[in-house]
Design goal:
mainly alpha, Hypothetical protein af1432, about 70% helix, globular, MESH1, Bifunctional (P)ppGpp synthetase/guanosine-3',5'-bis(Diphosphate) 3'-pyrophosphohydrolase
């Protein structure tokens, strides 16, 4: 079995019975979409697999030690780089950490993190077009804080130079917040 198929199977089981925030969409749609964005952008199979697995450590019982055992050090490191290290911190502190960390992260970690945020913001745009400002009610922080976070993420992700996914993310950030 190739690494992408294995990641799909494991992530599907790990995210079973989970749904996207405020929707009835099975959660697995998000990691699969992240993997598809990475695949479409031409990333290696290991990066695509890490994209599919990126939320398992934070949101399921399938942890980094399991990823390392089943997929190896490289994929585990990419997933670790896309995970918030300390969920006990405030939302602001966690987001500031992410922004700072991604400035100097490896290109693979930045690609997976960017694909994750790109799919998230596209989902928000779709929901915003349907529900209007009510969409901001499902987040811990409102529109202004989300705009701050996504705007700073774009700058952080391009700190080492621009790449196609961050260009797409910037367009979507402008589309959502500069209406």
């Amino acid at each position: 079995m190739d690494v992408i198929e294995k990641a799909l199977q494991i992530a599907s089981k790990a995210h079973q019975r989970q749904y996207r925030k405020g929707t009835d969409i099975p959660y697995i749609a998000h990691p699969v979409a992240v993997g598809m964005l990475l695949m479409k952008a031409g990333y290696r199979d290991e990066v695509v697999a890490a994209g599919i697995l990126h939320d398992t450590d934070e949101d399921t019982d399938y942890k980094l030690k399991d990823i390392k055992h089943d997929f190896g050090e490289e994929i585990a490191e990419i997933v670790a780089g896309c995970s918030e290290p300390d969920k006990s911190l405030s939302w602001e502190d966690r987001k500031e950490h992410t922004i700072e960390f991604l400035k100097n992260a490896s290109s693979d970690i930045r690609a997976v993190a960017c694909a994750d945020k790109l799919h998230n913001i596209r989902s928000i745009i779709k929901d915003y077009e349907r529900d209007g400002d009510e969409v901001w009610q499902r987040f811990n922080r409102g529109k202004e804080q989300q705009e701050w976070y996504y705007t700073n993420l774009v700058e952080s992700l391009r700190h080492q130079g621009s790449f196609s996914l961050v260009e797409e993310l910037e367009k979507e950030v402008i589309r959502l917040f500069k209406r």
